[in-house]
Amino acid sequence: KQAEKAVHQKKEQSKTKCRKARRRHINLVAEFNRRQRKNIWLETHIWHAKRFHMVKKWGYCLGDSPTEKSYRACYRAMTKHCLLQDLSYYCCLELTGKENELLKQLARICSIDTGLTFEDACCLSGRFEGSLNLYRADRYPEDMLGPVTFIWKPRDGSENRQLWIWMHPALKQDMLRELKAVFQCSEPEEIHIPEPITTSVQDKKQTDVVPSLGKKRKMEDKEGEKAVPVKKIIGDGTRDPFQSYSWSSQTTGIVISDRTMEILRYRLIGPLSHSVLTETLKAASLQTV
């Protein structure tokens, strides 16, 4: 009786993995992707999460305030060295089409009375970035949507141009709705439904096969140890992954694409910012076909 009682009282083996197993690359990436289903992480999230108090705003997980007193260090970096800020949570809308048609319709949502416009020569060439306030179509000076920054892709000889407009995530839906109305863009007939947020096929295989105790788990794949999961994030904090991300117009020929989280954006502040970029970026050699 005592032996039977001991068997019943024996604790079941814990199903939770040990820390070493949880910290394996394939398990860690799978866990990170699962935690990003509600609030999207930036590329620098891991670095910020170790040093900042994180907050959830506008569908993202952002660093709010540092855990240590680093105000003097930041001020010293801005005045004497270089300070980098991650602004990748800002939303980017790409407009593609004929230059004349783009300028004609964009003139309805801005005014020359406020200063710079999309038609400014220095910005139109693609050398400089511009900033302005957008309004609802033909409603200036009322119904202001908010401030944006923009940059043109330099001319390549064709009449088609590309324009990138950056805005705060809180203003994205209103501005996107107004741009689609101005350019008469319609929803696509077939909405592309992406794959769910997973790491790779190997994760599914690993969950199906229960490894035996006391033996090392090996991934059943042709690539072997080289088969590592890929960080795959679909959608962003301001767009559902099952919504469309591109709209076209049959009348104007303009295509609006949502490039949020596809183009990273960083801000460098300080006198050594140019030196940091010079040492980091290497100019590519020109290849003519």
From TrEMBL:
Task: List the Pfam families hit by this protein, alphabetically.
Answer: POP1_N
Protein name per its UniProtKB record = POP1 protein
InterPro entries in the record, alphabetically? Pop1 (IPR039182), Pop1_N (IPR009723)
Gene designation:
Pop1
- Upper classification of the organism: Eukaryota, Metazoa, Chordata, Craniata, Vertebrata
> Looking at the record's lineage, which domain of life comes first?
Eukaryota
GO cellular component terms?
Answer: nucleolar ribonuclease P complex; ribonuclease MRP complex
Q: Which GO terms describe its biological process?
A: tRNA 5'-leader removal
Q: Which intervals hold domain Pop1 N-terminal?
A: 4-97
Q: Record the organism.
A: Ciconia maguari
